[in-house]
Fold this sequence. Notes:
The protein contains 12 helices and 14 strands. The protein is of the alpha/beta class. The protein has 2 domains: 148 residues, Rossmann fold, CATH 3.40.50.1000; 115 residues, Hypothetical Protein, Haloacid Dehalogenase-like Hydrolase, Chain: A, domain 2 (2-Layer Sandwich). The chain has a 6-stranded mixed beta sheet. The protein has a 5-stranded parallel beta sheet with strand order 2-1-12-13-14. Strands 3-4-5 form a 3-stranded antiparallel beta sheet, with helices on one face. Strand 12, helix 10 and strand 13 form a beta-alpha-beta unit.
Amino acid sequence: MTIKALYISDLDGTLLNSQKEISENTKKTLNALVARGGYFSVATARTAVSSQKILAGVQVNTPVVLMNGAVIYDMVDGTYIKAETIPPAAAYSIIEVIKKHNITGFMYSVADNRLQIYYESLNTTALTAYHNERVTKYAKSFEQIAGFSDKIKDNKVIYFAFMGQKQRLSELLPDLKKLQGIELVLSNDVYTENLWYLEVYSANASKYNAVNFIRNYCSFDRIIGFGDNVNDIPLLKACDEFYAVSNAVYELKEQATGIIADNNSDGVARFIVARREF
Length: 278
């Protein structure tokens, strides 16, 4: 009996090298896997727009997990298969918390198969850099608004992103942890040592739930995952096997099935080749 297996990888710090690119060797390996009837996908904090640009030249033949599980997206036909929304009451409460601490960031929503990103102001270097990189490199659509609350009633809010120093973002945690219906992830940026991200999304949105949805949606018998950071722990728990790149954080390595070569050494591709998938 043939086992239908899926290889699913995180992007930043795992499949991507330090230049935020997929090497030509990795592209060839993944395309060879798919050409021989294998299955490949990604599970990332990134959105559809940036993921599509990064994955240009790679055959992704399975729905992908985006925004840490907030959405599941079909890259073949360009549709959102599933989106987990933050309850409106929780979204309003999140806004009250960030106002209290004088912190702002970005709010994401999905409507009519389109992702929209809202912001109130770019009042820090981190916010400006986040915005400018995504506009310049990925042509993302941002809209400046007077206040996040104005957009909650008529939009399906799926995600909030805040960035800056760890200590500053940590000030939000006690209040946010009191709210029902949401999950939080505070993690260090893969590329900048002193830059941290706080991501807020629906309690139903996780790489764990999204991967299990794909398992059933596509009838996979086995799932093999790859990652590098704490936000990949839910991915790990959803996989039958999970391998951490050698540059991964300790918390992930200690739970992984094994350790593979780092993201600058084509670790994921080398593992797939070693498994003799083609």
